[in-house]
User: Fold these one by one.
Assistant:
Number 1:
Amino acid sequence: MKNLIAILLFCAIFISQNLFSQVEDISTDRPDQSESPYLMDKGYFQIEAGVTSENDEPVKDFKTNTLSAPSILLRYGIAKNVELRGGIEIINSKTTVSGTSTSENGMGPIMAGTKIKLFSEKGSMPETALLLSITIPFKDNSAFQSDYIGTEFRFAMTNNLTKRFSLSYNIGGEFGAGAPGATGLYTIALGASLVNKLSGFVELYGFMPQKTSPDHRFDAGLTYLILKNVQIDAAFGFGISEKSPDFFVGGGVSVRLPK
């Protein structure tokens, strides 16, 4: 992952900030769980890569650690109000029972989807986009892939409260992968521009499976704009419900390439 981050940063600096003098600062869908309603400009390509470590000890002498390294989201502005999206992640899961550990490694399913702008922000009406995606399993006998194609939809919305604060929220659902039946999802995040190029957020989000108990979590994090087209981030969080992990931490880098 260190090599990937170094390569992305080198490419972005080599391209030079001057190539982006006529466009807005980079906007990303990480590190929070609230997808942004803002789309890629037509003809621009963006890479968002990160690492997340999730730890849980549901009972004494039983621990799990799940490392996603890396998770990669690719975004491309295909039209004024439409972007294409794709993603993949490599996962390592370690389980320790009474001091004895076992590990599993593999890739998660491929994600392919789109983000479509619906409404611009006007008064109390939020900036709104619709995200549609499918997850496609491509390898048998993997602990990290479902036997079925999964689908997801979500509405992503943002209200700019002041020049420094914004409220972002998502609502949607997942079907056919990860859990039996349908799973509802929600997010709500308060973002703030702190100083200069540093921003932060706090967020509450959760998943509500149709046939199992809910998973509610809290997270917070920071983003820093290195160049107009390069952003780094860090985040941490913890579970609220019994099903949730004890805590998780992560970080990453996002790079936008010129058209």
Number 2:
Amino acid sequence: MQRRTLLSAGLIGLSRKSWAAVPATFADQSHLLGHRLRDRAAFPISRRVERVPVLIVGGGIAGLSAAWRLQKRGFRDFVLLEMEQEAGGNSRSGENEISRYPWAAHYLPVPSKSATLVRELMSELGVLAGGKWDERYLCHSPQERLFLHGRWQDGLEPDAPSPREREQAKRFHARMDEFEDSGEFAIPSATGRRTRSDLDRITMTEWLKHEGFDSEALHWHADYACRDDYGARASQTSAWAGIHYFAARGQRDDKGPLTWPEGNGWIVRKLLERVGKHVHTGTFVHRIGRAGTRWRVFAGEVEYQAEAVIFAAPAHLSAYLIEGAPPVDIVYSPWLTANLTLDRWPDQGATHYAWDNVIHRSPALGYVVATHQSLRTQIPKTVWTYYWALCDQTPAEARRLLLEKDAAYWSEAILRDLEPAHEEIRQFVSRIEIMRFGHAMARPVTGHLSRRIRDLEGLYFAHSDLSGYSIFEEAQYRGVEAAERAIRRLR
């Protein structure tokens, strides 16, 4: 608990020790552009006009999925504008001399048969063929492990130490099976039956207590699940969303997940092979306004005029970009991720590591091993992708910390967090790259099901924010749905 206190609210008192610091750098600076938009700074005056039937704003999974759908429907007269130098959003990836690696989203759960859009894409990409999943892309064993009581255990659900806690774990999973069978907790969420909105009025922690679950191991597991998918504590998460994490996958017997060294960056790369000629990266949209029945989209010195706009950027940006758009009431979770380059493996070497490695009671979420899917017999070096949802402060306080503290500060915090499981970690890490996500994902707080983000005439929202939480399936669904609405308008 002392470590959790150290690395929680404000990270007060963190200081470096006498050993040599591990070189650390930030891999992002895009917040500088975003803050110019927030501060209503002046932008260049447009010098030329380009007309296009459909314009997509945002090149994350939602925007790329909208482009994929337009092209598959035979519609190719569109442009996608992305602020970053690389498309992908939370599914961006990087690469060094050792491996590719993810910057955020690092896996895709094996989709159930009802997740038709995901299965359609995976079939097109050769991951699913003849009803069978390509074994190269299914996560190799061992998949997950948890550092608990000074040792590693298989799986992420803590071993229940008493018969009473084991009975609670069994009863909890039986309840999740009941919720799964209800048909309400579907992926995409819009396809489920909404009959239990009462669950959206209380938190996941409150629901556990109401159901008589007081097992410390069970509460930790539920809290880890909410931090993992939503960047929020169970006490900050709608019970509906907390239950959705466990009940929506329909994966009781299926193996998985699907993963790649670069995580979902692999999917981004494959989508760009198909729609990349329509994608303009490094293009910052700073204003969107009406022009009769058309929309004017200002990006740098170009004014685009479009009959339909698909807004696939985070929804909170609409108030700063779209003339006449109402503010969006969404809480966003700040995250920090880091890629650690290891010149040697700690402990016994690569064969002893799982793909996903979590430290019990850490304020962070552990790390995934980028080289885990490698088929090489010798893997002398590796890259670990480390995840930290900053949910022990208010989002505003966490965002301020992200900006105020330098890379050396965060590097030290990461290494200290890893030391209980890897005492000599500093001897093996040669450098750390850090990515800051001030508004990483929408947080499904209580009442999120009642929130609505409504389209404007000819402008269609497409981000996973519409679902209230950020996962691949939701972003893809929202992008495809927006593309279909744009096509209907044009035809």
Number 3:
Amino acid sequence: MTATPFHDRDGSIWYDGELVPWRDAYLHVLTHALHYASCVFEGERAYGGEIFKLTEHTERLVEGAEILGFKIPYSVAEIDAACRTTMEANGIKDGYVRPVAWRGSEMMGVSAQSTKIHLAVAAWPWPSYFSPEALEKGIRLTMSRWRRPAPDTAPVKTKAAGLYMICTLSKHEAEAEGFEDALMLDWRGRVAEATGANIFLVMGDGRLHTPTPDCFLDGITRRTVIDLARKRGIEVVERAILPEELAKATEVFLTGTAAEVTPVGQIADHRYTVGEITRTLRADYEETVGKVPAETVPAV
């Protein structure tokens, strides 16, 4: 069954200050963002009508635009309100919210200081990123041949559109090989992240290990899960992790707005069980965002 294409849907999109019909939310083919990736975006999730950590996402969007050299012509409060308005206009209670800001089509070339800065917000229902069967057993990852760039070669702390080109390449190649996703190393050959989510490993010492986010996004969900783990008395270690250490992990999971807390059952030739710490933190996260009642959360 073919999914409904995103350009041909009912509903409304908030576009430069007003709601427009979904099918009319277009931009010109010579838009600077399309040719030169001068675009930042956010991925947000709503539960029960509330967007989780909305203002943190908006602040990151504004900061990301400034790092790319342009200023979004709306305040954080106005962008927050636009996200809520878009949710309400489309009747979304549980779903995904996508604010995106970009340079327009007034100039064509690498230099584009005089382009208009646009902002749009879309929202739609979105179930789990992976199938229930994959989540129960843990998803399967292959190793990507693409690496996360060094921080002096790209704006690695932003959700800039151009940074996701190698993620798309990696995920397409992984799916062609029968995997759900790919693990990316950084330019030094250290473990970095999956194509759209941060990674955590439970090692033999019982502690939770995660790569230091010095060349990739320090995800909002990542930080939330670190806080939840520490509340549970689970020690979290942020450090450089080498690929050979994957063989020593007993549990692995991913975190992200789309992925939420996703168990990993395999990375290349290494296999893992969906263990107690993974299940506990997944349940804690779902309780935090309002997905399950508190009494269903197990204890470690």
Number 4:
Amino acid sequence: MYLEHFGLTELPFGITPDTGFTFVSAAHREALATLLLALDAGEGFVKVTGEVGTGKTLLARTLLDALQGRTDRPCVTAYVPNPRLTSRELLRVLADELGLKFNRRAATRDLYEVVAAALVEHARAARRVVLVVDEAQALPPDTLEGLRLLSNLETGKRKLLQVALFGQCELDTVLRDPACRSLTSRIAFAARLRPLGRTDFASYLLHRLRVAGWRGPPLLSQPSLWLLHWASGGVPRRANILAHKALMLAYGEGCWRVGAHHALAAVRDSRHLLRPSVAAAASGVLA
């Protein structure tokens, strides 16, 4: 692999979310601030949507770290990465995340009471409980309704459970269903993650290279940066795939810098992952 060739200590452009590579773009900074503000205000539901690969999972984990690291407002967090669960299964996952002991064969109503009792105890101890649900567009309607019922639990001053929903743009379609109107009406704060602009995009790639150990002169030429941004549309996951392939191609030629032809070749090799208009244009350029 190209690590030794470029003086790197680890792969800079993996597609698995890694908080060690967290890059706070303007869009992520704004979304995180919105989430923290809304949760501090006691809102029951907050929502973040974005295109595939824009960094929603990384933002969710950043939010969890921020909440767990606060000493001024103690917070207990629960994380659901796979929401394709029935309402009962979600209650079991929440109970597990909260460290509760319960009968795994218990009826849904009994599980609800176990979780509710735990939420009351946390409230008495002045601890907030925040549930973060990733890929929330996959939540079944019955499970969404179960979340709404849990959010009904409150003291005279605040909710016992706050829920942060992270999902693809299809989540908005799900929530427009008349069956979800009661839950949707409770989402007072929402954020939208948008692709990286050209300046943030260049800073993003540079940041990941530096985290991975690069300390030399510019590794990506300006034309290659332009091409990678154009092809990826500023979406971090696509950018990682393209940048990784461009580095491999430069290494294969024994080059110490990624040039425009390396970036173009990476785009050609990844046309199946790109937007149709970009794939068609790349095919014409590289024919």
